[in-house]
Amino acid sequence: MIRVGVNGYGTIGKRVADAVDSQPDMELVGVAKTQPNFEAHTAVERGYDMYAAIPDRAPLFAEAGVEIAGVVDELVADADIIVDCTPSGIGAENKSLYESHDTPAIFQGGEDADVAEVSFNARANFDECVGADYARVVSCNTTGLSRVIAPLEEAYGVEKVRATLVRRGGDPAQNSRGPINDILPNPIEIPSHHGPDVQTIFPNLDIDTLGLKVPATLMHVHSLNVTLESDVTAAHVRQLLEDEGRVYVIPEGLGIDGAGKLKDFALDAGRPRGDLWENCVWGESIAVEGRDMYLFQAIHQESDVIPENVDAVRAMMDAADKAESMARTDEHVGIGI
Amino acid sequence: MIRVGVNGYGTIGKRVADAVDSQPDMELVGVAKTQPNFEAHTAVERGYDMYAAIPDRAPLFAEAGVEIAGVVDELVADADIIVDCTPSGIGAENKSLYESHDTPAIFQGGEDADVAEVSFNARANFDECVGADYARVVSCNTTGLSRVIAPLEEAYGVEKVRATLVRRGGDPAQNSRGPINDILPNPIEIPSHHGPDVQTIFPNLDIDTLGLKVPATLMHVHSLNVTLESDVTAAHVRQLLEDEGRVYVIPEGLGIDGAGKLKDFALDAGRPRGDLWENCVWGESIAVEGRDMYLFQAIHQESDVIPENVDAVRAMMDAADKAESMARTDEHVGIGI
Amino acid sequence: MIRVGVNGYGTIGKRVADAVDSQPDMELVGVAKTQPNFEAHTAVERGYDMYAAIPDRAPLFAEAGVEIAGVVDELVADADIIVDCTPSGIGAENKSLYESHDTPAIFQGGEDADVAEVSFNARANFDECVGADYARVVSCNTTGLSRVIAPLEEAYGVEKVRATLVRRGGDPAQNSRGPINDILPNPIEIPSHHGPDVQTIFPNLDIDTLGLKVPATLMHVHSLNVTLESDVTAAHVRQLLEDEGRVYVIPEGLGIDGAGKLKDFALDAGRPRGDLWENCVWGESIAVEGRDMYLFQAIHQESDVIPENVDAVRAMMDAADKAESMARTDEHVGIGI
Amino acid sequence: MIRVGVNGYGTIGKRVADAVDSQPDMELVGVAKTQPNFEAHTAVERGYDMYAAIPDRAPLFAEAGVEIAGVVDELVADADIIVDCTPSGIGAENKSLYESHDTPAIFQGGEDADVAEVSFNARANFDECVGADYARVVSCNTTGLSRVIAPLEEAYGVEKVRATLVRRGGDPAQNSRGPINDILPNPIEIPSHHGPDVQTIFPNLDIDTLGLKVPATLMHVHSLNVTLESDVTAAHVRQLLEDEGRVYVIPEGLGIDGAGKLKDFALDAGRPRGDLWENCVWGESIAVEGRDMYLFQAIHQESDVIPENVDAVRAMMDAADKAESMARTDEHVGIGI
Ligand SMILES: NC(=O)c1ccc[n+]([C@@H]2O[C@H](COP(=O)([O-])OP(=O)(O)OC[C@H]3O[C@@H](n4cnc5c(N)ncnc54)[C@H](O)[C@@H]3O)[C@@H](O)[C@H]2O)c1
Ligand SMILES: NC(=O)c1ccc[n+]([C@@H]2O[C@H](COP(=O)([O-])OP(=O)(O)OC[C@H]3O[C@@H](n4cnc5c(N)ncnc54)[C@H](O)[C@@H]3O)[C@@H](O)[C@H]2O)c1
Ligand SMILES: NC(=O)c1ccc[n+]([C@@H]2O[C@H](COP(=O)([O-])OP(=O)(O)OC[C@H]3O[C@@H](n4cnc5c(N)ncnc54)[C@H](O)[C@@H]3O)[C@@H](O)[C@H]2O)c1
Ligand SMILES: NC(=O)c1ccc[n+]([C@@H]2O[C@H](COP(=O)([O-])OP(=O)(O)OC[C@H]3O[C@@H](n4cnc5c(N)ncnc54)[C@H](O)[C@@H]3O)[C@@H](O)[C@H]2O)c1
Questions:
Q1: Are D254 and D169 part of one and the same domain?
Q2: What is the pLDDT of residues A195-231, one digit of tens each?
Q3: Cross-chain residue pair B289–C191, CB shorter than 8 Å
Q4: How far is CA A127 from the centre of its chain?
């Protein structure tokens, strides 16, 4: 049993906690939070031990009727590994805490790449993470790109990737974020920082990315172009992607024309929180012109990195090999729609 | 066992089907649909018998790999009662179908009041529906208003209701509806048609409603003013509403400041589809100035009418009295957060 | 000639500057800004003298090719009166600067009422401001409410006002503000702070306000209820409002059903920046039920306070009486659609 | 004097009318409209003769107080040339009307290419339109693409264009259009129909386009990649675009980070309706990686085709050559920011 602690229990942290909790070879030691808001109450109802991330605020939890098991220091001491799911930048600040307890830790994509010795995507570079003390699960967008680039690279060779990332302005509950009515080049500079982030996974990849931000909350949508090294057909690419466990190729005829319907589909299917852990690639969009492959994919920013965190735990603890870990994760998280 | 058929399997219909399916005293005979889209596939996975709502289109289902049990005529013939969940106006067109089979039917709030002999809200007028052949479950907004007016009327007497309904422009998957960036008086005329709709439940109520439409999809929000007939305190009103099973008074301190966080809360709590069947009243908003009571409530348009449909089935079939029916519905739907 | 300086040249400041510049009895001494962004360039093109609001940043203007006439201190020293249009809270910080130069100053509605000895709305309390050293032009919402309450109070007497303010989340260019997809009670507490703000203009008014925030940028919309002290007809109220210079009663038949069309109308009419300085009341919405008067009005947050600032200048300088000032302002700003 | 009639007086038509009215060598005979809404009133105020587009509805204009000069048939008979600005598809229906009067006509981009013998973009193919009886000014997106492709092609040669068009869901006043909270691949199929539309201007161009629709109203944003035939620097490309009269390269330092600020800039500059007739290319975004050139540009869908319509008039009437026409149009429309 790998004893896992989760530090930071927000959008990503609560999902990681659930995913860990569902794995037969893992035990969730507890979760650390800064405030006793509604998410704290749900954690308690799920039977998760709660730790105060900021010791001074521990009394607030009691006042709010949320019993705590201790403070974050104790959680870090007690766990075999910590998944840090705090906001961008806080993870790096927390690193000394993990180091002081010799507890390995996983960081999220909001941190700079140099927070850890290795950046991680299960499909693309599981083995590089084996035995690492610190790893960073790459961002939702990089995860989404890595999952399609890896099989394309293996099957056909990739000459160049050009991707326009049309990103959601904020998550559904982040009501102070905009824009309300704008389309923002973000960053304005081209290429964006997303390309170099993908290169932390594929160091030799030729990739240019362009980022935009729009007034939507449900999912990111990628407009992807990959110039391949061999001649292929769209049908062949489609089959290749359909064979990937963490890619869902949306069939024609279902009437799924956007993120709203995708989420409805996930909710109807009983997915917890309506999560879509897989890349959602529109089957009709897969096209090949010469050696240029194109597709549209929707990426559920709140959940696509969750299975990756579970696999990173096993890689770092050297608890299973890639195939075994990914299969186990998929089974117990519930991947496959 | 009451054998229930659901005609129209969209936003409301799929939820009614699930709710019926969960009741120990009901059996879901099947659901009728016009197209084999993603919702049809989920229905099949849930084990619901599928009927073609438009016989000519039956072959489309087979082509899409959705086996059908028959056409809607057979469903209506076979069921003890039909819940019609087709789009506004189609329900009225379907009435002759139900009449031709002598099958009682429940219509939704998109139909005119005169489609049925009685309009229904479980909390307010369950008994008027007992034994009826045709009833109409009032709209999401009217249901939301009725659930707070009924206890206020009983406890204090209501002199006058003034309500501004800030309505979502469309449901999350309805991506062709607007507005994108506007606040629309809708209808422009005051008072709006919502007041008279509430009067189908409370015939003698003095109520003026004002409707608006805004670019949001998650929930409606009501700004409610009720001039009471007695002097009361906000605390007393709050207690009264907390005692209502289908009203959730949002506690201070949870950090729930809008519909986004409410939905996250429901999803975290494991609610199917993140549904909020209850009126969600902000506790901090309940205020009394003189005899004027005010509050804000969020109404989940996609789900608040679901328990009402279940109760309407029992009322019409005379299968349980009000208290018994509502308790049973609440238990098996999962109301109470 | 009244020599006016504008400190803070953003959404409000640039409009105040233009309005002052257009008045025959006023001279715009100059405007002070913190950064040489696009608005600074337009100011220069309009021939406005630019002052650096933060002396240390003066070199940035030169680098950006924006010549400056001096620093804000000089502007304050040189002007007969300053209109402070800096962001909420900064105005109060600037007061000592104005005091040190014995320069009277006008603050905006983002400041607390106690920043000045008097709060101002031309229609409602012009005379109270005559000769004042410091005055605060009330916020866009309070201005909008005051303009309809004043005539209603004079003509019929007002027993009570209940207003739901459905506010835009941010101005069109404020792309970091949300919400993206939510309807937020804001503040959640009822009554909101807007009522007491209206009472700075009408001290004895009985008013309860409720605030909401939605994902729209163009205008606020008010759902207004006024219980009058006399029996009136909707037609009479409508005539009353049509007689108000700063109220535009939208005629039926123009097809103007929201803020988007209102702005298009203003732009088509050649209004600078598409500004709508007047309250825009939907004629069809004016209704009377018993002694309850209702209406919907759209308030252009970016511009409705502009004529008020011009009148406040004259009141404080004792340069014209109310009728004369308002008429002059209206003529030279271009009010009346 | 070229006598020009405008049939269809909505978003595009009213702007074409103003632009024609401003040209010294053109006379606006009148405009035809279907309904006497607010736009009809503004037309009258501008002194434009109004014609009833649907003769049966002529009396509605009189009732609304809008005097009409006749019906559309008379306008077509009287004019030397008609600019048809009716909704997509109606233009083609109107063609027989124009033919019956032997009146040349210009159609808009909502019509299929085969409505006219030639598709038109002033910068790219003015000469092909000279003397034509029927021409189609290409859509806002195709116009925006053509204006940058033409100089790139001339200066460097273009090997391939890949463009992701992030399109606004509807114009600001189109409040019934969505999506409210979604990012829609639209069309889902790749490549989209926009590429072939660009090929009506550049028949031999290798271009793949991808279309998306998002909840914004102000402008489209293009994420553009052009593989060039020669090695160039970003600085050289930038200079090339800065030399184009109908391209505005947004300078760094102005703080313009999206469409909201761009529109504010245009409004501040006194542009009628805040129109941005030029492509707005972010200077900082122009990048070259190998022979891949990238940039972001914002396209004001409501106005970028306006100067093109004016030039099309001159080309078809053989009234000026390309350089002369474009210069005259630019001067009198007011292009150049
Ligand atoms: N939300 C997404 O779309 C998304 C997707 C992929 C990766 N990420 C990354 O995941 C990380 C977490 O993001 P999120 O969206 O879950 O943020 P979040 O704000 O939803 O959650 C962060 C949680 O950490 C808590 N927290 C704050 N300071 C803390 C501290 N000092 N110690 C412990 N807990 C603290 C907060 O209270 C909150 O509960 C970031 O690096 C982010 O970039 C986010
Ligand atoms: N969505 C809401 O917010 C909401 C809330 C309360 C009440 N209602 C009411 O519920 C009813 C259903 O609304 P909805 O939102 O579920 O609509 P919907 O469009 O989501 O679903 C309607 C379903 O009926 C099917 N249908 C269409 N024509 C049919 C026919 N002739 N026979 C059988 N099925 C047919 C459609 O294919 C679709 O699956 C309407 O009266 C509506 O006003 C809707
Ligand atoms: N925008 C509205 O809708 C609106 C409506 C009515 C009233 N108001 C009020 O008007 C005031 C100004 O608001 P706004 O919307 O114009 O803000 P804004 O942010 O658009 O403009 C403020 C300007 O002040 C400048 N500034 C910042 N610090 C400064 C300083 N120390 N000295 C001088 N200038 C400084 C900023 O650079 C900016 O140009 C606030 O009190 C606000 O509450 C705003
Ligand atoms: N709005 C844009 O963003 C945009 C951009 C470029 C091109 N276009 C194209 O321009 C054309 C016009 O679009 P729009 O946005 O101006 O549409 P619109 O709806 O704003 O205006 C069309 C006008 O035509 C009138 N009309 C309708 N039927 C008519 C008829 N039979 N005869 C005469 N007038 C009639 C309508 O009343 C309306 O005033 C379309 O082909 C469109 O695709 C639009």
A1: yes
A2: 999 999 999 999 999 999 999 999 999 999 999 999 9
A3: yes
A4: 18
